[in-house]
Design brief:
By secondary structure, this protein is α/β, with parallel strands linked by helices. It is 35% helix and 17% strand. The chain is built from seven helices and five strands. Helix 1 links the parallel strand 1 and strand 2.
């Protein structure tokens, strides 16, 4: 077991598959730093064509603080001691800044399900950081993603079973489920789609 590790993701919404990834990383280190990517709206500008879901408000309905609290509550409920993890911003689209937020001597744990995951792994490795691939999965093996769960929420389908209970409670208590539905309606509106990018930038 190493001293420090890092795991990261957008966590829009934090799912049970995210929890599996985080716990697998935590089992390999004494202290885990959990990085939240696309921490604010400024970072929504994609630097890769593979970063398909990181660029709009619809795909990023939760704030950094909401994701922080959601992840923290879920981990504590799963029995992870607070002193054994920290939650930090993680500028994956500007990888040269990663060492300003996360320890350089940590092991960076990754799960590979898509081409974008492979590109992120390469970006971290190019910084001279040690990486370990926890698993590489395809298709249904990856399980429901945050995108899938948000889609279920927007379409009034059952979604609770795909997230930790603390997460579903958090989302409903703060009205985030209604926010997701409203953003889906907004972005599905033909009039909004026909607007010029400059005209709709305030919504993004």
């Amino acid at each position: 077991m190493v001293e420090t590790g890092v795991a990261f993701g957008r966590f829009q919404i934090f799912t049970l598959k995210h929890m599996e990834y985080i716990l697998a990383a935590k089992m390999r280190c004494h202290k885990l730093y959990i990085g939240i990517t696309h921490a604010d709206i400024v970072s929504f500008a994609a630097t890769s064509s593979l970063d398909q879901h990181g660029v709009t408000k619809r795909d990023n309905p939760l704030t950094y603080l909401e994701r922080y609290e959601m992840i923290q509550g879920a981990l504590l409920d799963f029995g992870v001691r607070r002193k054994e993890f920290d939650i930090i911003p993680f500028p994956v689209t500007q990888p040269d800044l990663i060492p300003q937020y996360a320890p350089r001597d940590a092991t960076y744990y990754l799960s590979i399900c898509r081409e974008w995951d492979e590109e992120k792994a390469q970006a971290v490795q190019r910084q001279g950081l040690k990486t370990e691939i926890l698993w590489q999965r395809l298709g249904e093996e990856c399980g429901p993603t945050g995108y899938d769960v948000r889609k279920m929420v927007a379409e009034n389908r059952e979604w609770f079973q795909y997230v930790p209970k603390t997460v579903s409670d958090y989302i409903r208590k703060r009205g985030i489920d209604q926010r997701i539905k409203e953003l889906e309606r907004l972005y599905s509106n033909p009039e909004w789609k026909n607007q010029k990018p400059r005209e709709r930038s305030a919504d993004q």
